[in-house]
Amino acid sequence: MTSLSVTNSDTLPADWRDFLALTKPRVMSLVVFTGLCGLLAAPVAIHPVLAFTAILCIALGAGAAGALNQWYEADIDARMKRTANRPLPAGRMDRQSALHFGVGLSFFSVLTLGLATNWFAAAILTASILFYVLIYTVWLKRRTPQNIVIGGAAGAFPPMIGWAAATGQMSLLPVLLFGIIFLWTPPHFWALALFVKTDYANAGVPMLPVVAGERTTRHHVFLYTLPMVACALAPWVLGLLGNIYGFTALALNIVFLAMAVRVSTRRTGEDDPMRAEKALFAFSILYLFILFAAVAADAMVTA
Fold it and tell me: How many alpha carbons fall within 13 Å on the CB side of residue 79?
């Protein structure tokens, strides 16, 4: 495995693909989509050019946070199989370049969003970047198994940013959308952590399966699913969204809850190792995409 003792002079020249990898494009796609749905759900129209600019700024802000996360966690990434080939631990980029790239993207995304839409949306984008970098990456991740519980807020801001970009203010619906992602994050990441537990242990990251064991983590997956389900159904129950969203949310949450129960009750050595956990992790991504698509579809139909 490549060592982080590689000096700047030994670092291979980075190309555009390495800078793209710093932004965590797979994570960014979900962030961008939920931000877009928050914008589309807003009760006011926004010029298409401004809407595109707002979503681009959300993407750039998310990419900036990802780059700064990899700059700070290069030592952890080098000790984990699934991250060892990232640009920094693989020696394709020096840390200073990653830092400058992340800071530059941060300032550009915030300033552009503020100038193009409003400074309230820009302030929320700033908060999301700072929360992910300082609260989650620097403070929580290496210190507590509850890192993903509190840190999940970082990825939950985009619907609020999209809404604020369109309206210049906040309302109950985007706050509930924030809550859905915030409560979705622990079962989503703990399902992943269960089948990559060795990676986290080798890197010294106190994820819940490493610190408390698999059985406790499986129970936590189920327990955190319950408030997520309640929050996901709240926009329908409170009349903020209609039946398109309501029936979609009901079906998705029944499946999610059933899969969480399966993870919670699975015994070690039963059937294919980690089949239930891998299935829940994969479904959780699909769950969020479909749920937020239903938010946008319902809002546009009933507008």
Answer: 12
